[in-house]
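Question: what's this shape?

___
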Amino acid sequence: MMSKRTRFESLNQPTLFQLGKPDEAIAATPPKEITRPFDVPGTQILLGTSAFTANGWEGSFYPPGMKSRDFLSYYATQFATVEVDSTFYGCPSASTVSNWSARTPEDFLFCVKIPQVITHDKALVDCDAEFEEFVKTMDILGPKFGPMVFQFPSFDRWKFPKQESFLAVLIPFLKKLLTDHKFVVEIRNRTWLDGRFADVLREHNVALALTDTSFVPRPWELKQEFDLVTADFAYVRWLGDRKGIEKQTTTWDKTVVDRTSDLKNWVEVFKSLASNSKVLKIFCLQQQSLRRARPRNSQTLYGFVEQEAIELCLRVQLRLVR
């Protein structure tokens, strides 16, 4: 179905990821590997954010005066991965993807959201051409190509009246996926999130997205206990209550909601994942209403995992945003 690529161990529209002109020369070749302030040493945890910029980041996360074309290169010195949100709206151009690769170190990983024409408009039906185009374009990243995320909506009842209706479409599609690519499935229908759904994903080594959001229960809130590990990697998305936060602010340069207690619960989830020998990598991406605090929340998690000391985490939070 798709061309193969090295194993991970089109709608064109202007986005934050189209950095400069496609044929612009890159000033310097990024190093192969670097040490980052948001690395979690001694673990398989990779921290990152969804997109690498938001209102309020300039002058707080990014140094004052830094040009937008340098954002990605700087971001890659702080985090080891990023979830590309813009791909949800359409497949980027080959030159754009080449630019992403050229501006990041060799050990950097791009997680990408699969276009909504596949997950929403066509809901996995008659979309092979769009899917193949997307995968072929993203394969330009080579070893920097991380997981692809299927972010499904809750779906109206007329589309999929029940879980069985959705699985009847999902399972045949999963069978067509090549095993040398990594995939994640996020569902937003809380009634479908159960052991049966997890078993289907596990059969195809597709990760179940573990989310912190208002539409589905978080891992410790699930009424039915089941194995959340469905692949040889784990994928955590901190989405938050975007609508609730945006009633308070649309500028992400200061603390709006203290998530310390939630992070403590997430640390227990991460400990469980890290102790599972089947899990080779754990991606943790923060997005949407958490954008303001992304770097700080990741540092908080770093403190919890490293030190298990809330006081240390809070001190780190206070000093990170200058």
Remarks:
- Residues 2-27, 288-296, 300-322 have pLDDT under 50 and may be disordered.
